[in-house]
Amino acid sequence: MSQSAEAVKLTRKDFVSDQDVRWCPGCGDYAILAQVQKVMPELGIPREKIVFVSGIGCSSRFPYYMNTYGFHTIHGRAPAIAAGLKMARPDLSVWIVTGDGDGLSIGGNHLIHALRRNLDVNILLFNNEIYGLTKGQYSPTSRMGQVTKSSPQGVIDAPFDAAALALGAGATFVSRTVDVAQKHLQNVLHRAAAHRGTSFVEILQNCPIFNDGAFNDVTEGDGAVQHQLMLEHGQPMVFGPEEARKAIVMGPSMRPEVVAADSVDPAQILVHDETNDAISFFLCSLRWRGVTGGPGAFPVPMGVLRGVDEPVYDDLVVKEAEDLVSKRGAGDFDKLFASGDTWVVN
Amino acid sequence: MGVASTVSTGSKPVKEVSTVVIRFAGDSGDGMQLTGTQFTNESALAGNDIATFPDFPAEIRAPAGTLAGVSGFQLNFSSERIFTPGDQPDVLVVMNPAALAVNLEDLVDGGSLIVDTDAFTKSNLRKAGYDGDPLEDTSLNQRVRVFPIPVTKLTQQALADLNLPNKTVVRCKNFFALGLCSWLYHRPIDSTLDWIRQKFGKSEALVEANTRAFQTGWNYGETTEIFASSYQVRAAEIEPGTYTNMTGNKALAFGLMAAAAKADTQLFYGSYPITPASDILHELSDHKNFGVTTFQAEDEIAAVGAALGASFAGSVGVTGTSGPGVSLKGETLGLAVMVELPLVCVNIQRGGPSTGLPTKTEQSDLLQALYGRHGECPMAVIAASSPTDCFDAAFEAVRVAVKYMTPVMLLSDGYLANGSKPWNIPNYADLPEIPAKYWTNDVGFHPYLRDEDTLSRPWVVPGTPGLEHRIGGLEKDYDSGNISYLPTNHEKMTRVRAAKISGIADELDAPEIAGADSGDALIVGWGSTYGSIAAATTQLLDEGKKVGHLHLRWLNPLPNGLDEIFARYRHIIVPELNFGQLVRVLRDRYLVDAVPVSQVRGQPFKVQQLAARISTILEGSK
Predict the structure, then answer these.
(1) Beta strands at B420-424 and B241-247: parallel, antiparallel or unpaired
(2) A329: nearest CA partner in chain B
(3) Which of B468, B474, B483 to mutate to test the interface with A (most CBs of A within 10 A)?
(4) Contacts with B78 (C-beta within 8 Å, 6 or more apart), sequence order
(5) Which of B292, B428, B483 lies at the smallest CB-CB distance from A334?
(6) B140: Cα separation from own chain's centroid
(7) Helix, coil or strand: residue B40
């Protein structure tokens, strides 16, 4: 989403509230908070015009730590509450902070409908594949077989892929980043802020207490190098260490294939196009995460999987009212009250 | 229908009567709601006092001719003041055997039964569960006056030269019935003829067909021997003004709109389709040039959530639903109590629990409104008492929500929602202003800073520089508005939230009592039973009983002074369309031996039955 950028000179400190941050030591949420507080002043939006809305869960404490307007609501309902807020005040910059339980389980319905309507808000979904605040039950993104407090014999529920779900719901902006990838996270936040329409940002986030290292295979050190496909619009899909670059090509029957980059004609390598639905869905079909955990057969697409311009819901709300005013004039209550059959009693 | 006098004008004698209850009944597809509505408009234009009650099935189109598919519309019209759509019809118009089977029992002894005999085919009789033709039953003819009329054939004959498909022709038969009844009661017919021209304007043939069916029915009454006389119901003495016939849901929508405008803010209505509340959404969604935003949400929870979000943003957030929806909204209503934002939750009650009787009326959500949330969660609750009172109750709900920064539950029900009464149209300029001020003062500000009088907190809308703050469902510190888990603070905040709501009582008008202000019994009601209780009270007073009627508008808080009033009567009798919900509240609060009069049949109280049950209580105590 974009804002008419007034020249407001704010710094990271302007966005730090006076509340003590109470996440567990080492929680990925700290890193995300730091980057959000860094990016906010760069958006050029007056602080009073920014609202953070959250549901319930560890991530949902977020608004208390941002020195903006904030509303810590109830479990799963942040997108619904933000919808009313944004429809009533389209001039506000609205940020929804949710998690894999809050957004994909109890609030799944609100999430998909927010995405299909394309309200001009930003959704930051912190995905740690576990319920943290309730102390360690499996979530809708937990891996099959994962042993948690509520699945002592292992999870038997198949997991959601958050980005694929968002794309399927019609999200006009779908992106993925990692809590510890400072620069990448900042860039994605900037892109999300600039997008008009619902911006969906999945942030792979580590829970050091109940699901420590869940994403290490693809986010840490050599794993990150080996397994992250950094998407850039108009650039070929290549990844991996310099000495062994790999590329994504389309195999027979539209099956994705990973090949050595120097083994194919460069023209065969798929080129990322954020505006091409076929590419976006293709990227979401890459099994980057094993259903039972660990890396999958494909790299994890990082960055903007989809970014298209579609009609924005709050624009349509405003336009509908404006059109009706031009057609009928501003509402006249006396005419309205007497618009049915009337009779006079003397 | 009491015959007052006989006058003779025109070709047949005209009898004057004061009050008539007429019911149109037929298959869902027979257009009975439309017929009833038009007859109501004609009666309003005749200057009568009127009250209507549509009664339609839950099925959109149940199989034609079946008992499940019967749709009815009842109108009470009178030269005197009336309170209800009437207990029993004096005139019953039935368009098929199923309609007869469902409605005959209600027709008063000696009443008139107008029947479309063409619909009494073997197949239709079987669908209605009749072995033979009930019209040939001598006991029927002894109990009521039967007017057997081949409505379908007469309509077909009249429209024969129009070369319309037979299906279209047969659909016009309701206008024959309307024309006949219009003749029978000397109704002014111009409005109906105008209405036909507007409604069917796109097709000249349909305008002609329906107009001709209407006139054929009218002429049939005038020229045939079957009706010996017609009837005149004179204009009632009604307070001067310009009137329109108003249903409860429409009045409620208008009240919300007017209140938001008088508060100089926007109205945001979040809703999910549900019977019998959907008409409010339909109405509001066509008035977006009034500063109204409507949001058909993905579910009930989103509907109230969006409304609360809009309130946070400075709009008047309203959500509308029926009982099952209120169950789903409970958690968000609790959040609204906790964050102290203005919000109105409209419950158009219906028969429950669960899906229950979705198109029928009941008052069984009072305890849900008062107590149906987790935690100590005080809710201001107001109930509308008539279709037109839905306007005033909605206006009042918004006023209190804004003034006290609180959710308000507004109770109506299916009977009020779909029923109608003449509305003395107010001048918008004469409606009171609602002072709603957004807080902008940053000196000593915190989000839970309280007004000393109302205990309400400041309404600070996002976008206000310098007052950035966070609210949420976690308990907040009384002095700073920050999160607090301190035991003493929680108790203090819980008490303050409760005191804020109970304090509303201090500005409420003293309760009015109709009838005796002391004596045998005080009849205490709330909501849509107003008309039935008012009429029953009048009847009991006429019988010499010293009874008063007190109708509660606010159910939480209750108005001050009830204990003193209760002490003036030997009995406190509480009629409700539930198993005794208000009566429990009164017993609990006042330690008074209040007696319930309960009914849960999906129908309003019948005045005679209510009066009789109250009499029994009074006599039983002698």
Answers:
(1) antiparallel
(2) B289
(3) B468
(4) B18, B19, B20, B48, B49, B50, B233, B236
(5) B428
(6) 34
(7) helix
Cα–Cα distance for residue pair B317/B140, rounded to 1 Å = 55
From A40's Cα to the closest Cα of chain B, the distance in A is 15
Q: Does residue A195 have a pLDDT over 50?
A: yes
Amino acid at A50: I
Query: DSSP string covering B563-616, please?
Result: HHHHTTEEEEEEEESSSSSHHHHHHHHH----EEEE--SSSPPPHHHHHHHHHH
Please tell me what DSSP assigns to residue B118. Answer: G
For residue A294, the model assigns a pLDDT of 84
Q: A320 contacts in B (CB within 8 Å)?
A: 288
- pLDDT tens-place string over residues B63-90: 889 999 999 999 999 999 999 999 999 9
Instruction: Characterize the bridge pairing of strands B407-413 and B343-349.
Output: parallel
Question: B474, A72: Cβ pair inside 8 Å?
Answer: yes
Q: Which of A66, A316, A332, A341 is the best mutation test for B, with the most CBs of B within 10 A?
A: A341
Percent of chain B topping pLDDT 70: 98
C-beta atoms surrounding B499 within 10 Å: 11
Question: Which 8-state DSSP code applies to residue B263?
Answer: T
> Residue B56's pLDDT band (boundaries 50, 70, 90)?
confident
pLDDT of residue B61: 76
Structure tokens at B451: 């007004």
pTM for the whole structure: 0.94
- The span from the CA of B338 to the CA of B319, in Å, is 18
Quick: pLDDT tens for A324-344. 999 999 999 999 999 988 888
B45 touches chain A (CB under 8 A): yes
pLDDT in tens, B270-281: 999 999 999 999
Q: Smallest CA–CA separation between B96 and chain A, in Å? A: 31
Instruction: Evaluate if residue B8 carries a pLDDT over 70.
Output: no
Count residue pairs from A and B with Cβ separation < 8 A.
204
pLDDT at B58: 73
pLDDT at A3: 45
Query: Rounded to 5 degrees, what angle do the CA atoms B39, B411, B310 make?
Result: 110
Q: Which residue of B has its CA nearest to A90?
A: B313
A84 and B305 within 8 Å at the Cβ level: the answer is yes
CA-based torsion, B440, B444, B446, B448: positive or negative: negative
| C-alpha dist (Å) from residue B576 to A272, B104, B377, B565, B588 | 67, 26, 24, 20, 17
Q: Across the interface, do B268 and A331 touch by the CB < 8 Å criterion?
A: no
Are A260 and A247 contacting, i.e. CB atoms less than 8 angstroms apart? yes
Tell me, what DSSP letter sits at residue A103? I
Closest CA to B461 of B452, B469, B453: B469
To which residue do tokens 């966005």 refer? A15
* pLDDT for position B143: 96
